[in-house]
Amino acid sequence: xxxxxxxxxxxxxxxxxxxxxxxxxxxxxxxxxxxxxxxxxxxxxxxxxxxxxxxxxxxxxxxxxxxxxxxxxxxxxxxxxxxxxxxxxxxxxxxxxxxxxxxxxxxxxxxxxxxxxxxxxxxxxxxxxxxxxxxxxxxxxxxxxxxxxxxxxxxxxxxxxxxxxxxxxxxxxxxxxxxxxxxxxxxxxxxxxxxxxxxxxxxxxxxxxxxxxxxxxxxxxxxxxxxxxxxxxxxxxxxxxxxxxxxxxxxxxxxxxxxxxxxxxxxxxxxxxxxxxxxxxxxxxxxxxxxxxxxxxxxxxxxxxxxxxxxxxxxxxxxxxxxxxxxxxxxxxxxxxxxxxxxxxxxxxxxxxxxxxxxxxxxxxxxxxxxxxxxxxxxxxxxxxxxxxxxxxxxxxxxxxxxxxxxxxxxxxxxxxxxxxxxxxxxxxxxxxxxxxxxxxxxxxxxxxxxxxxxxxxxxxxxxxxxxxxxxxxxxxxxxxxxxxxxxxxxxxxxxxxxxxxxxxxxxxxx
Length: 511
Ligand code: GLC
Prior knowledge:
- The chain has 511 residues and is of the alpha/beta class.
- Helices cover 25% and strands 15% of the residues.
- The chain has helices at 30-35, 37-43, 78-90, 109-115, 119-122, 175-190, 218-223, 250-257, 273-280, 293-296, 301-309, 334-345, 373-378, 416-423, 428-442, and strands spanning 10-14, 47-50, 54-55, 67-71, 94-99, 127-128, 149-152, 157-160, 195-198, 262-266, 288-290, 350-353, 448-453, 458-464, 470-477, 492-493, 504-510.
- A hairpin with a 5-residue loop joins β14 and β15.
- α12 (334-345) runs parallel beside α15 (428-442).
- It binds alpha-D-glucopyranose (GLC).
- Alpha-D-glucopyranose is lined by residues 60-61, 63, 100, 163, 199-200, 266, 268, 324-325.
């Protein structure tokens, strides 16, 4: 761990499988990440967050873990990991690891032992007898939209899972499970990591009564995370999600990881999302927690109006628009630059997903090319997670864009001219470098909001930095209404970075 904890860090998310391959396997690896750290540090970010690199059958892109303490050999070795951390620290980058505590893989030895009749291991998970007619113990759905219970004929019982059936939910109240988690967290801290991203913290606990969830009201139905055709959104998640002050469980995570670690959580609830993020980020819990509101609204003024009206403290609510779970928000035009500047100007932590700084847009994939279980479930109407996982095109001219010498695990069909522009002088990558630098040099990340308005598709924000300087950012989201901006020239604006887009413009002024 490096000495001080980053405040409101700019975090660059790496999805290792799609970042940089060095072996010709078509899959990214740890030495690949190490080889690109100079580039990442050159962007000016504070930290990297690594999506899972643990031993996994990859039924859910690595979020189905057999052994949380070991590295999958597709990604390299523990020595490769140590070398990556050392290089990151030399470059002044913190390293945050993904921790998927909510579930294991169904190939995890604990789960296999439970199936074989080990009752101690069975209590690491949630097993229940079928109802007398053989059906599931209750009406709960998994977040992806299948039933939350899968029958195992060996135990003649159902087990509970909130994602795919290959991810049995861990019983996080079990003290031995807690001991394992603590050991695993301490192990990664010993390897020098500086913080953790905790997967799906809002799924951690359920009500032990296992009562049926009630039917969702129309309002809840629209707010629950997921497409509205997903039956998971038909329920109010009263009993399967965080009964009582479930967010207080985060105090354990703080206890296990220590004060100096930067801890942030992923909220997949949708329902009361901002309120829950604030609960998870209370004193003594996580540093921050992010919800899906921002990407689902593509950072629109209306989205921010709603988030602000629900009492968000942006220091505890990282800004982000894309990830390995969301379609890329880029459209290859000026709107990308406006959104980037808006996110850089917004107080609080900021998560940048690999490749968004290149202005990457969402690639189209054919059904036979897709491997993601969620996309396949609802194809072609799903959320479209796999497109954002298409590997990074480092070199507009290379056969596989400098990602691999082999055959990439997903087809790469990036537009080479668009890439040349984005990666060339004055293009999107340069723009990200500039705005990340301005964010740092002017102290925007730790500023306080003095005034804001989200009328007419314009997000207008005035902030005061810790040294008392005031800045105003105006971000027009295509409405055609012209914003009333200061006469003085802007400190920075979105002009010229990418092809213009009707009504999209953003700028920041020092007042
Ligand atoms: C998180 C991950 C996602 C995964 C899910 C289940 O939302 O980001 O990729 O499918 O958790 O682990």
